[in-house]
Specification:
The complex is a heterodimer of chains A (114) and B (111). By secondary structure, chain A is an all-beta fold. Chain A has strands spanning 3-7, 10-14, 19-26, 32-38, 44-50, 56-58, 64-68, 73-78, 87-94, 103-104, 108-113. Helices cover 0% and strands 54% of the residues of chain A. Chain B has 111 residues and is mostly beta strands. The chains are: A mainly beta (114), B mainly beta (111).
């Protein structure tokens, strides 16, 4: 069975500091991996996705993630946090390709301090 | 605008009542799914469909029914609402590897 673990339900950074949100996955087949962002009282927006092409994936709003098969990780980073990055971030895995069911982690709430 | 449309946005039900949450997409996506979001638990898959006439259960299907008579529509039915079904419900769809598109959600309270 596929699963996703997000380490740290709450992360707080200062404006301008590095953002690092951790995600580890479990999958019996090569996975598709996604990061989504949810702003308060809104739906989910796709930040980026890994679909077995380049291991370093660039997304919107300056975020990127690196797929590391040996570590079964797909951590999300941004070099310099902005106040507008405050939101909840979800890592998700799709085991059999992008048209199969999507399994989410429990989310990480990012706070950005001025 | 193209996307996933969910109705209603808010709903209050009494225990034991039934209702249908509507979901429609205009992107000709084959795959559609329903999730519920609860604090600290992320999004959990309720039911999903890989095409018209085909549905299957996700992680938390009890108390919910779905059907998929057309490609566009994927309604979620609560048969007899319970307070444990108080949640935010999201519908999502995807086509061929472009990522999942989510609706704006339905906030349901069961009293």
């Amino acid at each position: 069975a596929q699963s996703v673990t997000q380490l740290g339900s709450h992360v707080s950074v200062s404006e301008g500091a590095l953002v690092l949100l951790r995600c580890n996955y479990s999958s019996s087949v090569p996975p598709y991996l996604f990061w989504y962002v949810q702003y308060p009282n809104q739906g989910l927006q796709l930040l980026l996705k890994y679909t077995s092409a380049a291991t370093l994936v660039k997304g919107i709003n300056g975020f990127e993630a690196e797929f590391k098969k040996s570590e079964t990780s797909f951590h999300l980073t941004k070099p310099s946090a902005h106040m507008s990055d405050a939101a909840e971030y979800f890592c998700a895995v799709s085991p059999g390709g992008a048209t199969n069911k999507l399994i989410f982690g429990t989310g990480t709430l990012l706070a950005v301090q001025p | 605008n193209a996307g996933v449309t969910q109705t209603p946005k808010f709903q209050v039900l009494k225990t034991g009542q039934s209702m249908t949450l509507q979901c429609a997409q205009d992107m000709n996506h084959e795959y559609m799914s329903w999730y519920r979001q609860d604090p600290g638990m992320g999004l959990r898959l309720i039911h999903y469909s890989v095409g018209a006439g085909i549905t299957d259960q996700g992680e938390v299907p009890n108390g919910y029914n779905v059907s998929r008579s057309t490609t566009e529509d994927f309604p979620l039915r609560l048969l007899s609402a319970a307070p444990s079904q108080t949640s935010v419900y999201f519908c999502a769809s995807t086509g061929t590897g472009n990522g999942y598109t989510f609706g704006s959600g339905t906030r349901l309270t069961v009293v």
